[in-house]
UniProtKB/TrEMBL annotation:
Top-level taxon in the UniProt lineage: Eukaryota
Protein name from the UniProt record: Heparan sulfate 2-O-sulfotransferase 1
Organism: Pogonophryne albipinna
GO cellular component: Golgi membrane
Coiled-coil ranges from the UniProt annotation: 19-46
Entry similarity comment: Belongs to the sulfotransferase 3 family.
SUPFAM superfamilies: P-loop containing nucleoside triphosphate hydrolases
Keyword Transferase: yes
Membrane topology recorded in Swiss-Prot or TrEMBL: Single-pass type II membrane protein
Length: 351
């Protein structure tokens, strides 16, 4: 008879092998599902492009101005983007607009030049999807250089760079309460963010902070050069000149309130939905532990953090400036200001 310890060891080994086989099958199923989703998306897009090509020679009546609108939310990961996007999904039926997720291969935020052309052409000419709200983890794309009519409006949300990185670090290991059963890329790694920084790990290196700047900078090569001063200035320029509104995660409700006031065609009812709806804070990273003061101090020594933080502070200042001219506080509540301009001395007089 085999010793009991040997039997226990064989049982443990058999269990480990079984778990590995199960995980391998789950991974294969996830990959198959991804391929199927991409194939379906390609077929849908091909059908749309075929319809467009058939309609080229036909005159189409112009869309009403309020319906000929496209918003692009090139969402930065771990900035409460899912919570905000779910509000758009909840409102699209009631407010009669379309919501489309831009699903890029391996979540690559940089599009190839051919995909840039396809995307710009689709967004501007896909009449059936207007008014449209596009969202996805993609870098800013300048539509003006493609010589198309009707540029979309960009919006976005940014977050304190260290808080965003900490959230992403634990998200890769423990997921969130949105899809708790989904296996994450770093699942099983129990190392805390503090331990990662103290040991010089790659997942918490200062270079991982470099994300919000390139998302706003765009598709230029230097945008993705960590620590580039040019990229920082370009990101600031785009934020001021190309984005209708950029909010901050820490003041998300105010961001939603201002959007509702500025774009009721899309966001009518958004503030109330955010305050009372069950999906207001739908996605929360699991097992997240706040970093220590020592860890924060270590990251703040890097030039990359200084640039990302400078961009965040710039965005925050701009948002607070917009908010100061859009809302007023009364009894602890914020209220949107009514229209404060009117027209007079209109000539020639109408008889």
């Amino acid at each position: 008879m085999m010793p009991s310890k040997l039997l226990q060891l064989l049982a443990v080994l058999a269990f480990a092998v079984a778990m590995l086989l199960i995980e391998n099958q789950i991974q294969k199923l996830e990959e198959s599902r991804g391929r199927l989703e991409r194939t379906i998306a390609r077929h849908q897009l091909a059908e749309v492009e075929q319809r467009h090509s058939e309609d080229l020679g036909r005159e189409s009546p112009p869309l009403a101005e309020k319906d000929d609108m496209v918003i692009i939310y090139n969402r930065v990961p771990k900035t409460a983007s899912t919570s905000f996007t779910n509000i758009a999904y909840d409102l699209c039926g009631k407010n009669r607009f379309h919501v489309l997720h831009i699903n890029t291969t391996k979540n690559n935020p940089v599009m190839s030049i051919q995909d840039q052309v396809r995307f710009v052409w689709n967004v501007t000419s896909w009449r059936e999807m207007k008014p449209g709200f596009y969202h996805g983890h993609v870098a800013y794309l300048d539509f003006s250089k493609y010589r198309v009519q009707g540029k979309p409006m960009y919006i976005n949300v940014v977050r304190d760079p260290i808080e965003r990185l900490v959230s992403y670090y634990y998200f890769l290991r423990f997921g969130d309460n949105y899809r708790p059963g989904l296996r994450r890329r770093k699942q099983g790694d129990k190392k805390t963010f503090d331990e990662c920084v103290s040991s010089g790990g790659s997942d918490c290196a200062p270079e991982k902070l470099w994300l919000q700047i390139p998302f706003f900078c765009g598709h230029h090569s230097e945008c993705w050069d960590a620590g580039s001063r040019w990229a920082l200035e370009q990101a600031k320029y785009n934020l001021v000149n190309e984005y209708l509104l950029v909010g901050v995660t820490e003041e998300l409700e105010d961001f939603i309130m201002i959007l509702e006031a500025a774009l009721p065609r899309f966001f009518k009812g958004a503030t109330e939905l955010y305050r009372t709806g069950k999906k207001s804070h739908l996605r929360k990273t699991s097992e997240k532990k706040p970093p220590s003061k020592e860890t924060i101090a270590t990251l703040q020594q890097s030039d990359i953090w200084k640039m990302e933080n400078e961009f965040y502070e710039f965005a925050l200042e701009q948002f607070q400036f917009v908010r100061a001219h859009a809302v007023r506080e009364k009894d602890g509540e914020l209220y949107v200001l009514a229209q404060s301009f009117f027209y007079e001395k209109i000539y020639p007089k109408v008889s």
